[in-house]
Amino acid sequence: MGKLDLSALKDQYQNGTIDMITVAGVDMQGKLFGKKVPVRYFLDDAVHGIHTCAINFIWDVSLKYAENYTFCNFDTGLHDIKVIPDISTLRTYPWIPKNAVVIGDIHNKDGSEVTIAPRNILKKQLAKAEALGYRAYAASEIEFHIFKETIDSAREKNFSNLQPLFSYPVDYSIYRLNVDDWFLGQLARYLEEAGIPVEALKGEWGNGQVELNVQYAEALEMADRTAIYKNGIKEIAALNNLMVTFMAKHDTEASGSSGHTHISLWDLQGNNVFYDANHPYKLSDTGRYFLGGMMALAPEFMLFYAPYINSYKRLANTGGAPNTQTWGEDNRTTAFRVDGQGKSCRIENRIPGSDANHYLVLAACLASGLYGIEHKIDIEAPTKGDASSAPGVKRLPANLAEAIQKLSNSKIARELLGDDVVDHYLTAAHNELNDYFLEVTDWERKKYFEFI
User: Fold this and answer.
1) 412 — phi, psi (to 5°)?
2) How many domains are contained in the chain?
3) Residue 179's pLDDT is what?
4) Which residue windows are transmembrane per the record (predicted)?
5) Are residue 27 and residue 155 in the same domain, yes or no?
6) Angstrom distance (rounded) from CA 72 to CA 427
7) What domain range is 343 assigned to?
8) What pLDDT does 388 receive?
9) DSSP codes, 410-444
10) Are 329 and 210 in a shared domain?
11) DSSP state, 254?
């Protein structure tokens, strides 16, 4: 069935096909939060919004909250916010029988927007693009690891020595895709039924690792799709006694999981404005300037591409990890890759991992790219060969502390995103770093326990 409008939802309710609906907001980490309500109540009342606690925007990925946020704390009374459904996101949720889901925008109780909410951050950049005569299209390309474990068994093993779905690399292997079709085929069919058109599934280099490509769409729709399918993939796996992780690097010896993001700008008449067959690299001035802005501000926006301690373990890896301030023509070792002709011409940002919040990734891409257009930031010649070993290349922040420093010192980021957004996400990053420094890790025990 896929996408629904209110009339279709009423019909499905009346014939008994759908009786529950999840009203969801999107938190700082890109995860869904909210409430499940009967369709009857949704149509009568919740269609105008549900109340949730603002604490959803002050806790970390494991729901540990901190009291050092300005937006919400005990002095604000851990106040309520409102999730107002965007009916254009209403769709079936086929892996949970008789269920639907709708994503909402986050508002304060006085009706004003919560400016630090990721969906609102992206919408602000999309509005700016439209005011300049552009529409942004995007596609997400997310990798993840699948394990023959349940949530309980993984916890009992302390998330170590887990059994992957397959125990060897299967990059592009058709054999493994068919052997594991009992799950992967189910996954693709469910997403298609939910109105999330799958472009391809492929095996990846890591044990138990798979990549999902979703068909491109307008940027907000793509971010919504990504939030829903990441949530859904974990649920579908759990319902099949499997476990999925979107960690950027789940084990020192394992392959990292990327969240490559493709983006292009189109004019309001439906023409791709990045492509120009008569210009160098077949990029128009607009395309070059957009890429120039993304490259120039990548160090300052790194926190939105790589938000966690673990994110940088993937980027530290050798063998083409996108850790340099470079671009290339169909070059997978550069941070930014230009590919495609005509309507398919696009810029691929290869920096984000699968752990990143896609709303924030796209917002950072747009903010920096539009800044490049406005200031005519041009690009140098593309990097040839392995970017990581190219002489004289600039390096991106190598860890979360460096990324925090870059964003903290960025006047441009504050100009483009707002002080409240920058300060809120810096607080989250500082909390992540401080928690890590207080934790005694397996690395420390292995290094010091016996020998000191």
Assistant:
1) -65, -40
2) 2
3) 96
4) none
5) no
6) 12
7) 125-445
8) 85
9) -HHHHHHH-HHHHHHHHHHHHHHHHHHHHSPPHHH
10) yes
11) S
Rounded to whole angstroms, the Cα distance separating 315 from 298 reads 14
Let me know if residue 305 belongs to a domain. Answer: yes
Residue after which a domain boundary falls, among 62, 83, 116? 116
The CATH number covering residue 95 comes to: 3.10.20.70
Query: Is the pLDDT confidence value at 318 over 80?
Result: no
**Residues 164 and 188 grouped into a single domain:** yes
Strand partners, 143: 211
Burial environment of residue 408 by CB neighbours within 10 A (0 to 12, 13 to 18, 19 or more): middle
Q: How far apart are CA 242 and CA 238, in angstroms?
A: 5
Shared domain check, 337 and 262: yes
Are 72 and 133 in the same domain? no
Q: What percent of the chain is helix, strand and coil (3-state, nearest 5)?
A: 40, 20, 40
Residue 301 domain-assigned? yes
What string of DSSP letters covers 268-332? TTS-BSSB-TTSGGGB-HHHHHHHHHHHHHTTTTHHHHS-STTHHHHHT-SSS-S-BS-EEES-T
Over residues 357-383, the pLDDT tens digits come to 999 999 999 999 999 999 999 999 999
The answer on 279 and 385 residing in a single domain is yes
User: How far is it, in rounded angstroms, from Cα 260 to Cα 221?
Assistant: 17
Shortest CA distance to 169 belongs to which of 207, 211, 212, 210? 207
CB atoms within 10 A of CB 87: 14
At residue 70, the pLDDT reads 96
The structure tokens listed for 247 are: 């960690």
Note the helical H segments in 376-418.
400-408, 411-417
Last residue of a domain, one of 82, 116, 150: 116
Q: State the CB neighbour count (10 A cutoff) for residue 240.
A: 15
